[in-house]
Every structure is written in structure tokens, then in C-alpha cells.
Amino acid sequence: MPHQANAARRHHIARPKRTVTNWAEYDAALRQRGSLTLWVSEEAIEQWKAAPRRTPGGQASSSGLAITTALKLRAVFRLALRQTEGLLASIFPLLGLDLPVPDHSTIAAGLGR
């Protein structure tokens, strides 16, 4: 009796409309979701370092492109500033790139742009 009395309030789980017919392909697609692929163009590598200043003051070490890229990665992966710096520092050696990584205070300064 209790089972029938609560029938109106029970949630019904609908059957899936599509069924998986090719499990190997489906399994490979699920594994591919965890893949991270990054492309760095030659133009981006050339523009990564900041241009030398012609005015008095310290020399900038990171270009606007570097700061913008760091901020985009930060937004995509929802990282803190120091974690973003660490992510870039770990990605560049994997890609075989010898590029300077903007530090977290430089990335933070880009937030106000």
C-alpha cells in the first residue's frame, strides 16, 4: 500500500532516446574529451616577448598577447593567478618552447585593461 500511495510523488526516470550501438567508438570519444591540444603559431611566438621600451622605466618582460593568453587560460580553467602562471610554465617545456612566462602580478595587472 505505501508504494502505491506515493506513486504520484515519485520521480520517473525516462528511458534514453538513443542507444549506443558502437561501444568502441563511444568509449574512444569519452577518452578524447579529456585530451588537451594547444597550438602556438609562429606569429604568436614572435609576438610573445615585449617590445623594448623607448621611454624611461623598467623594461616590460611580457607582451599584451602573453597577458591576454594567460587571462584566457585562467578563465577557461577557472584558475587563480599563481596557478595560471604554473600552468603556462608547465606547458611551454612540453611544447619545446623557450618563452618567458608572465608572473602572477603581471597577469593581475592585465585584469584592469
Please explain how this structure is put together:
It is built from six helices and no strands. The protein has 113 residues and is an all-alpha fold. The protein has one domain (2-110). α5 (81-95) crosses α6 (104-110). The chain starts with a helix and ends with a helix.
Tags for this model:
mainly alpha
Task: List strands and helices in order, with pairings.
Blueprint: H1 2-5, H2 23-32, H3 42-48, H4 64-77, H5 81-95, H6 104-110
Helix pairs in contact: 4-5, 5-6
Shape: elongated
Low-confidence stretches: none
Give the SSE string.
Answer: HHHHHH
Portion of residues within helices: 40-55%
Q: What's the N-to-C terminus distance?
A: 66 Å
Biggest beta sheet attributes: none
Tell me the structural class: mainly alpha
Which percent range describes the beta-strand content? under 5%
Taken together, the total number of domains comes to: 1
Q: Oligomer, anyone?
A: single chain
What's the Cα radius of gyration?
24 Å
* Number of continuous helical runs: 6
Q: List how many beta strands DSSP finds.
A: 0
Average predicted confidence as pLDDT: 85
